[in-house]
Amino acid sequence: MTIYSPPGSDGAIVNYESRYDHWIGGEYVPPAKGQYFENPSPVTGQNFTEIARGTADDVEKALDAAHGAADSWGRTSVAERANILNKNFRYFTGAIRAQEGSLGELDDDTVAYHFHEPLGVVGQIIPWNFPLLMATWKLAPALAAGNAVVLKPAEQTPASIHYLMSLVGDLLPPGVLNIVNGFGVEAGKPLASSSRVAKVAFTGETTTGRLIMQYASENLIPVTLELGGKSPNIFFDDVRAADDDFYDKSLEGFSMFALNQGEVCTCPSRALIQQSHYADFLGAGVKRVENMKQGNPLDTDTMVGAQASNDQLEKILSYLDIGRQEGAKVLTGGARAEMPGDLAGGYYVQPTVFEGSNSMRIFQEEIFGPVVSVTPFADYADAIKIANDTLYGLGAGVWTRDMNQAYRAGRAIKAGRVWTNCYHLYPAHAAFGGYKQSGIGRENHRMMLDHYQQTKNLLVSYSPKAMGFF
Ligand code: ADP
Q: The pTM is what?
């Protein structure tokens, strides 16, 4: 067991500045309007740094820097770009070096060449649930493909991207990556509405995604959206066929709703358990949940830490009430977790298991907390019907020892990622993204380069003769 010292205290291995400005053109620039906002730690509820409060003027300044840098960055050789990015983004540096265009010999004199060209300057808007991971998922392919970026972190979690810049900010030419902090409407909207970005990439709530798409439609630019989810996690009865490692793994799979405190768009927030082993499996699952260690996130033994913000804490608590009012049964948890000492002001929720039916709001609406809603199913057809009875289609889990059943279920579930006998793995080499109202486009995987490139066709005639029209 190790308990790391909190940032800013004696012995801390990570420390934050007391204030962060915008990172524009390779340096820190104060906000045009001179305003800052406080950033509290969810662990204790205490402010630990203050952040520049960006507005349209700051976005313009960042776009000036990005436009100044985009052409020369876009023309660097892939080897040069890969060499810079390889310090952090190894998968996409490999992908960009291996990428090739194509040529088609249309006839003896005519050749169609296809080149991948960067889009230019792109805007990226990041959520608060995995502040660094969500930023790097977007930055790696955009920068590898040769784009310059203006990125807006979430107002709840703006600090960690600046910590990253303190480590790697000098690697990129000035202006290739710019960070404008601030709130959604004040800084995000001017970025997503700007006629000076060639694309907007967004991760966040489905309702915000709809707005982003509206802004982008004014300028007829493409968007990629990674939105909400209400992912089903299906446990067929054969998982119970033996009391072995696989059974243990499937119980861990049930508990995955609490990973990152449930603040994951793919949170397996609906557990569907086959009737014939329902009571046994659920009983063992609840026991597993009750053994989760909750507390200080800087303690390496801790499994469940604090929710990201007070707003999110209150939203989750309101869903705990909604569930009870709808008649769902609380099998464990169901309340705020009271923590001792310094943690008393932090935002902790007990991992919670509800039992109910799929039409309830707690089964249909994204809670984004350590809450799973459990319901039984009769057979394969019933499982697929319940799994697909949702507006969303981001993730799903299928647990069975029967690989034919696993294959059929995986193909029948309308979701972009079906984890099969695993959950919550996110390798760079596997495409991630939503069906239905969970989004447009994919993240990770080589195919994501397509979202940050456009195709240039050179149609070349090698014949000296007139074409014969005039
Ligand atoms: P949440 O409500 O869970 O914070 P959001 O979708 O509101 O999720 O936030 C995700 C990101 O989108 C954040 O960076 C936020 O500042 C930004 N955002 C929110 N509203 C808007 C908006 N109207 N225009 C552009 N960006 C926005």
A: 0.96
